[in-house]
Amino acid sequence: MNSGTGKYERLLIRCAMLEPVPTVVAHPCEETALAGAIEAGQKRLIAPILVGPAARIEQIARSEGISLNNAEIIDTPHSRASAAKAVELVRAGRAELLMKGSLHTDELLGAVVASGTGLRTGRRISHVFIMDVPTYHKLLIVTDAAINIAPTLEDKADICQNAIDLAIGLGLRNPKVAVLAAVETVTSRMPATIDAAALCKMADRGQITGATFDGPLAFDNAISRQAADIKKIHSTVAGDPDIVLAPDLEAGNILAKQLIYLAQADSAGLVLGARVPIILTSRSDNVRSRIASCGVAMLAAHARHEVLVGA
User: What is the pLDDT of residues 108-123, one digit of tens each?
Assistant: First the structure.
């Protein structure tokens, strides 16, 4: 993590005041995936239930010096069985979070969206990166960079609402959403600008709730108040967004990876819109990123629990 910014550190301090969340870890059959889950358990972010080939998990733990600390292991023969069993345990109420191990994302999400046995709700499933960017003054949520390839307007409304609900769960009041496009003017030649304008009006009409919107905004005037002033854009969002909505997956994915690899941002990854938050890390993520993802998911799970109790 970027120790100089303290953004993730403040988040993890909040986590220290909460109870660890029961979490099913699907197929942690690689050193980083297993170590990340176990370390998150040791930090009392999650209470991991490991689902995968038991002999393989135990062998990795021995060879890498990872203490399983009597962690519960549920034996499955292969990755697809691990995904199915993990989802089954969530449906049975054994866990409030689902965490991806070393299996492929499509294997896990295939079990999540399976008709009749999955974890779907009425909301579109989407992905968020929670980014700690050294050059930005607060955490930045980037969505969607991993699931919805070419989202429709209605998909984008759900994607926004998922991110807004997460931001509120992280303690933000009235988060600011910048709807990105290549330009800040509305034109029929760029459909993303029309979607952006429509999303802002949907927020005005209460079809999306809990946030302040502006768009279309190009990335420079979304992130930089100075750039917005130069272009005479009068906006409470410009220069201060909590959430940026990409026009499609390719743009979101490129943006997130640029922030990680060029701006040295730390990232946490979650899938939202299912029955429980899903900790979706990349196989290339280090243990620190996995810990950050668990911390964000823990706060989201506790916020969701408070809403359910309040209801």
Answer: 999 999 999 999 999 9
Domains and CATH numbers, the chain: 123-273 (3.40.718.10)
Residue 48: both structure tokens together: 């991991």
Residue type, 226: Q
**23 beta partners:** 48, 97
Rounded Cα–Cα distance for residues 99 and 26 (Å): 6
pLDDT at 282: 72
End-to-end CA distance of the chain: 36
- Percent of the chain surpassing pLDDT 90: 83
Mean pLDDT over the full length of the chain = 92
The secondary structure of residue 114, as a DSSP letter, is: -
Q: Where are the alpha helices (DSSP H) in the chain?
A: 7-15, 31-42, 54-64, 79-91, 105-112, 153-169, 191-204, 219-223, 225-230, 249-261, 287-310
With CA atoms as reference, report the closest residue to 28 among 92, 73, 62.
73
Angle 158-148-284 (CA atoms, 0-180°, nearest 5)? Answer: 120
This prediction has a pTM of 0.91
How far is 119 from 109, CA to CA, in rounded Å? 9
pLDDT tens sequence across 192-235: 999 999 999 999 999 999 999 999 999 999 999 999 999 999 99
